[in-house]
Amino acid sequence: MPDETKPNGTPPDLPPTADKPAAEAKPVAAKPPTTSPAVPAAPAAKAPDGGVRPPTASPAAAPKPPAPPPKPAGPTPQPWDDDFTRGLKKVYGSGIRETSTYLGQAYVVVDAAIITEILTLMRDDEAFDYCVDITALHYPKREKEQFDVVYILYSFAKNTRVRVRTQINDGASIPTAVPIWETANWLEREVFDMFGIRFDGHPDMKRILLPEEWKGHPLRKDYDILKQDQEWVQINLGIESGQ
Amino acid sequence: MRDETTLTNHLMDDTDDWGEKRRTVLDADELILNMGPQHPSTHGVLRVILKLDGEKILGTECVIGYLHRGVEKIGEHRTYTQFAPYVDRMDYVAAVSNGLGYCEAVEKLLNVEAPPRAQYIRVIMAELQRIASHQVWLGTHALDIGAMTPLFYTFRDREEILKIFEKYCGARLTTHMFRIGGCQYETYDGFEKEVKRFCDFVEPKIGEYEALLTTNRIWVERTKGIGILNGDDCKALGVTGPVLRAAGVKWDLRRAQPYEAYSKFEFDIPVGEHGDTYDRYLVRMKEMYQSLRIIRQAIDNIPEGPIMAKVPKIIKPAVGEVYHSIEAPKGELGYFIASDGSTQPYRMRIRPPSFVNLQGLDKMVRGMLMADVVAVIGTLDIVLGEVDR
Q: How many Å lie between the alpha carbon of B66 and the closest alpha carbon of chain A?
C-alpha cells in the first residue's frame, strides 16, 4: 500500500529518455514531506516543483499517456449568478468581491467591513441557521490581506451549503459571529489559537487547544517550531547554540 | 499551568492570600470543583471546571487540548496519500468513518468517484463501524452511570466487528481501510456470509442491551429529563448527530446529502422528542438496527466490478477548495481542503463533531446536579482524540 505514495513506483515502464527528469524530480518530490515544518520553504520549493513535475507526470503514468492532458483542463470556478447574488451585488456593490461555485460548491467573497451584515442576512433572510465551521487560511506572500476567514454555512430548510469568505490584514481583527451563531464561540477561539486572528466582541477570546503560555500560532505559514525550540533551550538550559 | 489563573482566581475570590482566610465549613458559597483531566468518566483527558452551589451546577468551563497533536498542521506537510492514516487517529473508536470522510473529500477535490463495488464495501464497513462506535458509547456511558453489565456485553459483541475488520485489512482499530479513489483490498472469501452471520448474531444482542436498560428503573431515573438540549439550541450550537436527532430534528447527512451508495438503501432516521439523555439513548439504539438494515441491503446487492477508480499515482488536485462532510457516528464530520496545485494540501481543516458537540455541555448541565455531568458527558459521546486533534 505505501507504493502509491512513491513517485518512483513505476520505474520499469519509464522510457529511457524520461529517466533524467524523473531522477531530478524525485528529490524534489521527496523533500517537502521530510523537511521540518519550516513553512516558508514549502511554497518556495513548490515553484520549481511545478515546473519540473508536468514532464515527469507523463512518464510516471507511462502506460496511459493521455492521463495528464485532462488535468490542466480540470475544474475551474464558475460564476454564480442568480437572483440571490444579483440582489447582494445590488445592495452591497463592490463589497461583494466574488460569487462563484467550485465543483458545485458555492462561495461568496465579501469585504471584511460588511461581514457581520452579510452573516446576519444569511441567517435571517436566507435561513442559513447552522454555522458548520469557521476557519482561516494564511497567505503570507500577499501584499495585504494575508488572511482568509471562511464561514461554512448550512441551511436546514433548503439543504444547501454556502461558504462566506472574507480577507483581512495580518494583525487586523474581525467582528465576532457569536451573537449570530453560538457555535462560533469555540470555533473562533480555535482560529485565534491557530492563526492569531482576533475577533472583536468575542465573550472569551483566549486560546483553546494550546496552553495559555504558548508562543506563536501554529497554523500560520511562518510559524517556526525549530526556532522556538532553540530559544527555549537557550533560555532554560543556557546552551548558546540552542541544541 | 494552563488556566491555573482562572481557577485560582475563583478559589481566591474572597481570600486575600492562598490558604489564608479560607471559607468556613458552613459557608454556602459557590464552590469551584475541578473534574478531570484524569477522571475516569471524562472519556479521555477532558477537564471540566465546575462552579457549584451545593450539588447544583451554576456553570462549567471545559479545558481541552491535552491530546492536541496538530493534525491539521501535519496535513500541510504530508502528501494527500500520506495523510490518510493520520485521520484514523482522531476518532479512534470510529476510524473507518474518519478515513471515509477524508477519502471522499480528496476524491471530491480530484473530481473522481469510487466505483460502485467500492462504494458498497465502504457503506458496509462504515455501518459496521457505526455499530461498534455505538457499542463503545453504550458500554462506557452505562458504566459511568453505574450499570456495569452492558460494558461486558457490548465489548464482547464489538469484538466480532473488529474481527471482520482484521480479516479484511489486517487492523482492528486504526484501520486505514480505504484509499483515495476506492478500496485497497477486495473482500476476503466468505465475507458476505460472515457479515450476514454477524448481523443475525448481533440483532438479538442489541435486544439484550435494551432488556438491561430501557425499562431499568435506575437507568430511567438517571437519564430521563437530564441534559435537555432542544432543537433550536442544537442548531445554534452546531450540535449534530444523534444529539440533534434526539431533539426531534430529522436530519441525517446520509439522507440529506447522500454520499457513496446511501441513496440506494432504505432506512429510517430515528428521532427523539424531548432531547434528553434517555432519548439520545433510544435514538442510538434504534440507529444500530437501522445500520444492520443498511448492511443487509448492501450485502444482498453488492455489485461486481473494480474497486479502485482511476486516480493518478501522484495526487495533485487542481487549485481550489472543497468542503465535504459525512455522517460519522458522532455527527457531521467535515473536511475542508484547500489545494494550491501541489502534492500537499495547502490547508487541511477538519471539522470534528466531538469538538463542536462538546460546546453544548455547558447549556446541558446548567441547573442540573453534579452527578449528571457524568451522564451528560457520556451521552454527548465525545472522543477526546477528535476534540483535540
A: 8
Q: Mind listing the pLDDT tens digit for each residue in B75-113?
A: 888 899 999 999 988 888 889 999 999 999 999 888 888
- Least CB-CB distance to B111: which of A103, A181, A213? A103
Q: Where in chain B is the domain with CATH 1.10.645.10?
A: 71-388
Count interface pairs A-B at CB distance under 8 A: 152
Which of 229-288 (B) contact A at CB < 8 A? 235-239, 249, 251, 256-257
Interface of A with B in 5-44 (CB under 8 A): 5, 7, 9-10, 29, 32-33, 35, 37, 39, 42-43
Determine contact: B343 vs chain A, CB below 8 A. yes
DSSP A18: G
B301's CB contacts (< 8 A; 6+ apart) are B120, B264
Residue B36 Rama label (left phi>0; alpha psi -120 to 50; beta): left
Q: What is the DSSP string of B59-80?
A: EEEEE--TT---HHHHHHTS-H
Helix or strand holding residue B98 (H, E): helix B95-110
Give the CB-side neighbour count of residue B13, counting CA atoms within 13 A: 9
pLDDT exceeds cutoff 50 at A177: yes
Written out in words, the top-level CATH class of the domain with range B71-388 is mainly alpha
Kindly identify which residue of chain B lies nearest to residue A64, measuring between CA atoms.
B312
Locate all alpha helices (DSSP H) within B214-339, ordered by sequence.
217-223, 231-237, 242-246, 253-256, 277-301
Asked if A191 reaches chain B (Cβ–Cβ under 8 Å), the answer is no
Min CA distance, B80 vs chain A (Å)?
9
Cell numbers describing residue A151: 464561514
Amino acid, single-letter form, for residue A16: P
Of A53, A132, A185, the CB nearest to B332: A132
Q: DSSP for B307-345, please give it.
A: SB----SS--PPSEEEEEEEEETTEEEEEEEEE-SSSSE
C-alpha cell at B65: 487540548
- Give me chain B's average pLDDT, please: 86
**Nine-digit cell at A62?**
507511462
Q: What is the pLDDT of residues A124-141, one digit of tens each?
A: 888 888 899 999 999 988
Q: What domains can you pick out in chain A, each with its CATH number?
A: 2-60 (no CATH), 78-200 (3.30.460.80)
